[in-house]
Amino acid sequence: MLSAASTTSTPAPRRINVVKRLFLSEYLVLGLCVVYFAVFTPFTPGFASWSNLQTILAYCLPILVVSVGLTLVLIVGGIDLSVTSIIALASVVGGKIMSADEGWLAGSAWAIPVGLFAMMAISAVVGAVNGAAITIGRIPAVIATLTTMMFVSGLAIWFTLSRKIGGLPSGFVMLGQNLWIVAAISGAAILLAHVALTKTLYGKWLYAIGHNPRAAIVSGVPVGRVTFFTYVFSGLFAGIAAILFTAGLETGNPEMARDNLLDVVGAVVIGGTSLYGGKGHVIGTVFGVLFLALVDNSLNLIGLNFYTIAMVKGGVILAAAFTDALRNRFMAGA
Amino acid sequence: MIEFVNIEKGFFGVKVLKGVSFAVKPGETVGLVGENGAGKSTLMNILGGNLQPDAGEMRLNGQPYTPRSPRDAEHARIAFIHQELNLFGNLSIAENLFIGGFPRSATWLPFIDRRKIRERTSELLRELQLPYGPDTLVERLSAGERQLVEIAKALAIDAKLIIFDEPTTSLTARETERLFAIMAKLRERGISMIYISHSLSDVLNLCDEIVVLRDGAVVGNAPASELPMERMIALMVGREITQLFPRRDTKPEEGIALDVRGVSQPSVARNITFQLRRGEVLGVAGLMGSGRSELARILFGLDPCAAGEIRLNGQLLNGLSPRERIQRGLAFLTEDRRMEGLCMEAAIADNAALVALPRFARGLFGFVSEKKSRAAVRNIREAVKLTPSARDAQPVKTLSGGNQQKVVLAKWLLNEPKVFIIDEPTRGIDVGAKHEVYRLINELAARGTGVLVISSEVEELIGICDRILVMRRGEIRDTVGASEFDRERILRAALHEGASV
After folding, report:
1. How far apart are CA B483 and CA B466, in angstroms?
2. A61, A185, A271, A313, B23 from A55: Cα distances, Å
3. How many CA atoms are closer than 13 Å to the CA of B367, on its beta-carbon side?
4. Does the CB of B326 have a partner CB in chain A at under 8 Å?
5. Statement: the pTM of the whole predicted model exceeds 0.90
6. ipTM score
7. Which residues lie closer than 8 Å to A48 by C-beta, 6 or more apart?
8. Digit-coded pLDDT (tens) for A272-298
């Protein structure tokens, strides 16, 4: 009875807390996916069919791998606009090495291992250039990665004279066409990033730098080194995506993933990773990619054209960025 | 002038103000004191229209006053001089003064009447004896001069009530004197003022009335003459603190913890030589800009060191990064908590564990043992007496200044430093937390840690140090032992007047 007075006043704050927690939760986007799916299924012929779900998954997985790499970069307070151009470059490098038509190692048993290694290596190198420009050169991340994006896309086109490279070996193509293998590779990459982020020193340092780089330096965090390697990791994740895309489409293409940059950045932001640094989760990014894929796929099935879909997706991403800004202000005002 | 009647305000179910009532009479200066978290800033935010009260009302000259925005407060002729100044460094003084509403040359044209602005600005600057033209960029002014610009801004809107929120924290002794002289002038003009400060002696000297807030309620409201310092402190903390500076019984040991020889850096430090012994608390006094904070940054490896040697327990530190110096047992609490001390948005536990994290990590991939880190944080929380109501996962920015400072101390103590450099141990924190910080410094010394304390408050240094170095213009001008502590002598050496050169 004594507590009666105090309990009467609790419902109001608790309701605020529930709303607030839902608003800030990384599972909010998963909820949105479920709701979207439930609402659109009756109006969208074939949306819920098994083959369509497989299509969605096949589209999602490579995008997801790049997005996870970008998640690390956003958490450290940076941005990497060069990821899709890295995919294009790695794609043509792999093609040039492995192609049966024009590859340097055409037909050799070494073609696939050397090709895979070269794709990852070139991706890491571009990531390292980004990292060095940002940490040693102190160039703002937007400019550094925007210029590498231009340079690397140009390089990919120049390297192939703007042609696509076909005739990739079947052992390689399998990596991107067998959904189980694709899922295993992407799953491993995503799990690796998740564990690194939540369980290791590197992950804890990443968040600290994203929150306040100056305080991190004073606290003995190797800020330069951690930031540098984060861009290398971003490049490597783009490299894995390049393998999946190139194998899946059976071509080395200098314009590979060209239209996906905003999908990637948007998915990460929809997943709740903050553009202001210091906040974000791999799980959120998984849901973010899924959500954008559902929107994209369902609008395609309804028969909207590419440009209309781009407008809708742009609107969704803008809303997510706005939510991020709101969250930031909400937290600051509390 | 202004009257607060039963103002109440809560955030997310926590009551921050519980029926606050008091009045400021025309021409009166009221001191508002209280520990951090007592509700001072919330009350001032309500007065300034940034927040709306849940209940109660304000009356301005007898009329109800319900500001919905800072603009309303400005129209009501209420001005705020904040701790962190709200000026645009890249604009001129004149532009800053009139940013809220530029006078137009003609009512129907959107052009600014520059001549009028410049004339009015020059007039105000003369009045405040600020020797600059109206076109001077604000970024070229010192902290104290910027504050005068803020006051000029208040005069430009013809303010009848001016609120000073911790105006002296970033001012030198001279600038503080000048500020007080100007406040006396404002008072002669019949302007009412509310003065908020942790410096209780200033409050006693400047104010007619003193209002003491504790936990969102007014616990004392009396003329300054009837509220001596001890009484004020007792009201603020709700208990008597018999001694602000706890006694320490241990003496410095023989061994030298930090050996600094001939450290120099052009235009910052010249030939700095001193030895800090184990278990010693060594103070560094000096005015702002004397090189005291810069010296700390050089010792910690944040700024370059052109010449000289720095040794920690005999090991040479020169050329090592802050990270490597931390590994060798150095710790550094910076003067700016917000910018360099804490990740404000991050959790208490993450902040507290940050420095010692490598100790909890194992293996090639650096897997962090949550169990170990959580246990360590739990212990250190108790050691620094962090408020038990704060959860480990709570962002540090939700804490009061005193508790934030305890988190910074906790993160360094977790790494068991051999030498701890503390720059401004008690800036912007309340009396209770100050006492706690001094107690922790004593404990560190008792365990044989060498502590270097830099402070702009001479009383604080006299209260806790074994020895005090006095710096001026990048040089050590005097070294004073505990037996000969003398406020006058220290200030004189810091200010140059009459001291040996």
Report:
1. 9
2. 10, 17, 21, 19, 71
3. 8
4. yes
5. no
6. 0.85
7. A37, A41
8. 899 889 999 999 999 999 999 999 999
